[in-house]
């Protein structure tokens, strides 16, 4: 009780007084709980939950003063391991600290007595009222052992809290929500706050004015009376309905519907929340209404065998959540149009990985409309088209809706989806008895109409053509946005330096800045979403804002009690706003609950990854916090568009961190906000001319031809129109040659001879898939790459050891980074200690620890090494260079198999730098190494290519110029990856052409590169690139033409682009413009050397390093490198080398690099 009184007097967080488990004090106590099992014996699930034999759950009462800040340092041992060294404290320093503590206590006691009064009477023996008050406050602060309370599951706690939030939400809506919130005043308040350090960057504050709606004149004739009536009831309130008013469509909605009803393929490219969903819902409902009317008016209305079958439609969405949301919206409108029994007869439902076997059996494939994703279409629908239910569905297919079209504009995923849709059209034509000539001539009515919606992009018609394989004559673009928009206040906010005006101290993590804003806005009733780049950041922000709410509401409730004379019931306590996290990995049921609560207005805020970036309807939001630049400008605009829906005023804040990508946009805020895409200034013809055709992606084309041949045997003449480009005749001719080559060499001919044994004519031959692709080719082709999908047996279950509830499922690729014994797992901002991980059984046991004041971050590395060479670019040329005696002058580029191994070898324990537990966890308090038995590597074999650097070049960079060789290699790898992901002048397109290779590299880790002692993990001087997806060697994929092969074959031009881009950019340390900064870098772009990369790229672009892909294990593919350095290459002499060395370092400054000087592990690994 005395300690509680002391804490009540001091207030704040200077004194920690709480129960703690012994295992929380000793981070590695969990190691003592090693399995009491025989070697090689797996424990049963029940045994895993058995009580501990030791006392790791024992609790002790912890008293800790946090008024003295000690600076610990990281030290590296002789073995190269890292540990935390605690400082020694001198006796005189401790005496001074105690004296300061006593002085603060006296001041706090005087203030407490003054606040709560003195004596109650003249008798000194009468107890003083401030002492009574002190006992009341101390009693409230007495800690309760965790064993006496079991917290609710976070999602269940949300539901309990939601009812209390509803009254606040209703009052807020009645007041106009964000429309009446003074965002400009809030921004001014931030500037006036004493903690403000000019975080708003120059040019980083502006307002986009509101936009008035533009309505169509009339829509009844367009929709018909019945559908207009349903639309009225959807959009109008009772008063308007009573007056006979009609709902009006926006001008762009009416224009799009007119084009659809004319039979054209339509793409709508307008802003977020512009009512695009109605554009594809209304035509399909009108189709069903017309069929229903015709059937009810026929002579045999109840006979399903008479008359045409019910027409069908497919809605395709990139995510399950979006499909679920649109299904609910469509069915609601359907219920307004049809009588209930008729509405229910049309089976319009989701068909995805979450659809249970019972639901599929109940529907028996009798679908009218399915809401699905490209993966289900690829694996489940197309290979099974011959089943009666699917055959009937596809024969009646009239509309295919592809929402979020911009998601498919680049990368391998977009290319895969394009080929899936071409296979769909081919099967639909076959089911309907149509020929490919009728479907592909651009004049005949199509097998189905395509409707797509997209965020604002340049040249949407080209994207529509490439994705669906349709001619330009069939595509109508609608981009005249008639929807209203409220004023949007933009703020670009740069996290301040940890020590004001001291750049060397580094920047505060954006979590700390976002915490305050999210708390401010939600407490003011402003519905807010905070977007985070990574799942971990999402959880840490959720944890931080929870701590911030606790801190603020303790003060609020204390003031209320004080105002009431120390009285107050628990029922009168103010509760913080309801805020939840939302990201991939959560269970389907949890995600649906969070979506529902958010849509219903019972959540004041949500912290999310880009899982909520797309157009799922989550109700009216008024503010968006973007925590760290989200990789692309398109994503930033999409996220910012989530606020201000329904024409409300809104706020969008981009909060930058200290990494180079963020700082580039902090220095150039208009690049992030305004439309600066180069393609908007170029003609459609110019852009189309640069877009390669399907034949430039032979590997992916072959995969889908194997799938198509399995579905229906392929005939070259009959099927060529499905698998050639619709952009131009030249591209179509090239595609046809590649298509014919793949069919004749990679597929199996089923009728190469006739019944008499004579060879059949080429035009009469049919081909099926190669036998090695059986039994199901589609299952060997991953549209999104490997890594596991939710709901598969490959995922790991994370199980709460106390409640036995499965919290999440985690893909195998993430497990090493997320689950390790002794580590902290975070779910909905709540901390769980990892008790054990069972790789063979694929589950991990975790125990909730709400009082934990620290978290963990894995210490890991990924090694990427050549495993097997399949192709070599050129012949080695050797030259005497001194040491070693013989070294290659020419850089040799090799393609083949790469062994990729990720190892988590330990973790750091981190705590916040703030006493109240808010903000980022960036203070290292311990460095732990895991035992070898727990460092099982995550290994896979991928396709890749690599360039070993000659020894003389390594010496030139590291010894002669004093630059970081690791930084030079890392920066050059980034530059090449950035160059490979875009053409020389267009970064938007690649869907049906040379899909931007989605490659990875071995990023350099600061913990290794900044060690004082050389690391035992030595890495060769090599640029290496690989596919993220593992190859299925057993499935014959070793010689597959992969994304890595395509990049290898096109490496010469990419090297030229990378060098030109870097020399053009005026920055000194690297940025996105020069290519040194790469968004997906796993090590935050820290160990990079732009001067060193410039030397490497000049060398790789010299004639001595000319790249000429060979043909050892792949089709002939040559490319000529654009040279940028003029050197004599007729002989390989020392004079050649000397001249080359001079040209490589011309104008390159000596080291050390300004961005690498003075770095320490503590500054860079967080």
TrEMBL record:
One of its GO terms (molecular function) is nucleic acid binding. Coiled coil: none annotated. GO terms for cellular component: nucleus. The keyword Glycosyltransferase does not apply. Residues 517-685 form the Helicase C-terminal domain. Residues 32-53 are annotated as: Disordered. It comes from the Eukaryota. Keywords: ATP-binding, Helicase, Hydrolase, Nucleotide-binding. The keyword Nucleotide-binding applies. InterPro entries: DEAD/DEAH_box_helicase_dom, Helicase_ATP-bd, Helicase_C-like, HRQ1_WHD, P-loop_NTPase. It holds the Pfam family Helicase_C. GO terms for biological process: interstrand cross-link repair; nucleotide-excision repair. Residues 257-475 form the Helicase ATP-binding domain. This is Similar to Saccharomyces cerevisiae YDR291W HRQ1 Putative RecQ helicase, belongs to the widely conserved RecQ family of proteins which are involved in maintaining genomic integrity. The lineage of its organism: Eukaryota, Fungi, Dikarya, Ascomycota, Saccharomycotina.
